Structures are given as C-alpha cells and as structure tokens.
Amino acid sequence: MVKLLDGTGAGVVFDTNHALYENNVHYIDTIAAAGLKIHSLHISDYFKDENGVLDERHTLPGEGINDWNGILGALERAGYDGPLMYEISSRPRGHGGVIDAAVLAENMRKLSHYEM
C-alpha cells in the first residue's frame, strides 16, 4: 500500500495518543523506514490508572507515560519539520482543571529543551 503513495505527496498525521499499547518511538521509526513522510503531529500524553487501565484523557506532554525525549529524537531522525499541535483535553488532570497560557508556555519550553 505504501508503494501506491509514491510520488503523490501523501503522508501521515501522527498522533502520540493513538499508539496506546505500543511504543511511539518504534512507530515513528517504522513510518520513516517505510518511506512515508510525517506531515503533521498531534501531541498529548496519556496514563494508566491504579488498575493499569489506559486513560486517553489527552494530558499535557510529560504528565503521562509517553517517552517524549525518545519521541522527539525519532521525529528528528525522520526529518520531521512540521507543526506540533497540542491536542489537550478540556478536562485536564491537575492544574485546578484549567491549563492557562503560562502552564502551556512552560510545557512548550520543557518539550523544546528535551526536559521531559
């Protein structure tokens, strides 16, 4: 199927919240190895509750179980140079239920400096 996309400009929108049982770093490396380009990226985190059940609440990067330094490294290896679109829930964990501009700016700073 990937060969059918050659020369079409088609690519992938990768969402870090959808590889819940897998390793996002592995997925990104596999996409690049298949010759597909990641055109856009949705970023958020998720976690497991006390019973090990996954919660896709779309928390801020670094608040869940994603390996953000690994994900960023894989994106660099894949040559990704597109946007990082935050996809955050309207019901965030912590932060008093509200993510304001200061919290978001600090999260972006940490992410951009590999401080996750």
Based on DSSP secondary structure assignment, what is the total number of beta strands? Answer: 5
CATH architecture: Alpha-Beta Barrel
CATH topology: TIM Barrel
Molecular shape: globular
CATH class: Alpha Beta
Q: In angstroms, what separates the terminal alpha carbons?
A: 35 Å
Mean pLDDT: 85
Count helical runs.
3
Radius of gyration equals 15 Å
Features:
116 residues, alpha/beta, TIM Barrel, 3-stranded parallel beta sheet, two-stranded antiparallel sheet, 5 strands, 28% helix, 20% strand
Describe the fold and architecture:
- The structure is a single chain.
- With 116 residues, the protein is of the alpha/beta class.
- It has a single domain (9-112), classed as Alpha-Beta Barrel (TIM Barrel), CATH 3.20.20.150.
- The chain contains 3 helices and 5 strands; from the N terminus they run E-H-E-E-E-H-E-H.
- Helix 1 (24-33) packs parallel to helix 2 (68-77).
- The protein is globular, with a radius of gyration of 15 Å.
- The protein starts with 11 loop residues before the first strand and ends with a helix.
List the helices and strands and how they pair.
Elements (H helix, E strand, L loop, with lengths): L11 E4 L8 H10 L4 E6 L1 E4 L5 E6 L8 H10 L6 E3 L14 H12 L4
Parallel strand pairs: 1-2, 2-5
Antiparallel strand pairs: 3-4
Short précis:
With 116 residues, this protein is an alpha/beta fold.
